[in-house]
Amino acid sequence: GIWSGLSTDAAVAGHNSTCAYLANLARYGTSVAVSNHPKLISNLFEYTRLCWMVNNNRTNVPEEMPMIGSNATTLSHVVFEQTGTALNDLLASKTGETISYRIAPL
Q: What is the pLDDT at residue 1?
């Protein structure tokens, strides 16, 4: 079912995760459900983190986990920032996240 594919590691065999699917709907503005319920994605991401921790018997999600890790919206350089000017930009505010920066070796 849809709940088994919440996170990227649960969605296998070439399938997309539910979080990625709904984030893409929000990105392109094609979902009435997402636009009518702005907290839907941010709540879903939080529930996905909790489900991942229970399923993997861990107390935290790895920082580098796509979509739900704490570094998912961390930038190493300003050129990677998504500002909403490009068609495929997904603003962190649409997923309930905030942008942060980190030092990365060049």
A: 54
What tokens appear for 92 in the block?
């962190």
CB 79 within 8 Å of CB 53: no
pLDDT at position 34: 67
Query: How many C-beta neighbours within 10 Å does residue 100 have?
Result: 11
pLDDT of 54 > 70? The answer is: yes
Helix or strand run (H / E) with residue 59:
none
State the pTM of this model.
0.63
Spatial distance between the Cα atoms of 49 and 44, rounded to a whole number of angstroms = 9
For CA atoms 29, 93, 66, 40, give the dihedral sign.
Answer: negative
- Would you put residue 28 in left (φ > 0), alpha (ψ -120 to 50) or beta? alpha
Strands (E), the chain: 74-75, 100-101
- What's the average model confidence in pLDDT over 68-90? 75
Residue with tokens 């907290």: 39
38 and 31 Cβ atoms separated by less than 8 Å:
no
